[in-house]
Amino acid sequence: MLIATLIAADRLPAGDISRASDMLASAGGEVAGSDWIEPDKAADIRFSGDIANARQAMAAFDGAVDAIVQPEKGRAKALFVADMDSTMITVECLDELADYAGFKDHVSAITERAMRGELDFVEALDERVALLADMDAEIVTRCHEERVEISPGATTLVRTMRKHGTYCLLVSGGFTLFADRVAAEIGFDRAVANRLEIEAGRLTGRVIRPIVDGGMKEKLLREEAEKRGLQPAETLAIGDGANDKAMVERAGLGVAYRGKPTLRDAADARIDHGDLTALLYAQGYARKDWVDA
């Protein structure tokens, strides 16, 4: 049995559930019924049919509703791997660091192209970090305090999943000086990110190898799953850019959060309207099951 979970950014009318059921039926699905996860907020539609056709149909659902289609069995995941910048937090840390050096517009333009998959990630990273050479390393602490904001729903998502036994890993093409703090604040089990080279208290403008890129993110997801004896179907991954594509494709449920086109096309599901607690509804957790931030 398959399920299509509808999650409203605001309110979910019963008419939207009926309309989605009709769309699934038109895509060849046999609808068995629907149930509220949270009245007026999130609901499941149970059906049988072709999952690819159903996902295509739900991608065309209009309104401020996110629709996530997946197998009903195993919807609550045992491993969660998440990107950091523009996913678990609202900013791109490298862009914000560059602002203190007066290069934000230039760096942001490179970041945008890299996240869209138009530039090689490692080359783009090296080019941007080189502009930070000779900055006081303490600027990272200031940047974190002044600029970094946790994305809505992120803390509730991670703490609830951990309460229910999920291992949560934060992986970032950004930097440990941010990722370690963010992981601790949100509640991740572990964080893996790039390391900025520092000499005599100043940034050198170089990133220590190996680089955490798209391939490394996918590798970490695979290794963590194997370490725990998990099948791909038991894993969940979320990101926003092209360097998240490999891990999103590897996961049992791969999600694009406000994603760039390259990732949106590759993902099993998209969150475009609601906050990150949409992933709790997608796993069948009602609000009574949540750990509030």
Model description:
This protein is α/β, with parallel strands linked by helices and 293 residues long. The protein folds into two domains: 1-73, 2-Layer Sandwich (Alpha-Beta Plaits); 76-293, 3-Layer(aba) Sandwich (Rossmann fold). The protein has 13 helices and eleven strands. The protein has helices at residues 14-26, 51-59, 84-88, 93-101, 104-115, 121-130, 139-147, 154-163, 176-186, 214-227, 245-250, 261-266, 278-282, and strands at 2-8, 30-38, 42-48, 65-71, 79-82, 167-175, 190-199, 202-208, 235-239, 253-257, 269-271. The strands form two sheets. A seven-stranded mixed beta sheet has the order 8-7-6-5-9-10-11, sandwiched between helices. Strand 6 (167-175), helix 9 and strand 7 form a beta-alpha-beta unit. Helix 5 runs antiparallel to helix 6. The chain starts with a strand and ends in an 11-residue tail after the last helix.
Secondary structure layout plus pairing:
Layout: E1 2-8, H1 14-26, E2 30-38, E3 42-48, H2 51-59, E4 65-71, E5 79-82, H3 84-88, H4 93-101, H5 104-115, H6 121-130, H7 139-147, H8 154-163, E6 167-175, H9 176-186, E7 190-199, E8 202-208, H10 214-227, E9 235-239, H11 245-250, E10 253-257, H12 261-266, E11 269-271, H13 278-282
Parallel strand pairs: 5-6, 5-9, 6-7, 9-10, 10-11
Antiparallel strand pairs: 1-3, 1-4, 2-3, 7-8
Helix pairs in contact: 1-2, 4-5, 4-7, 5-6
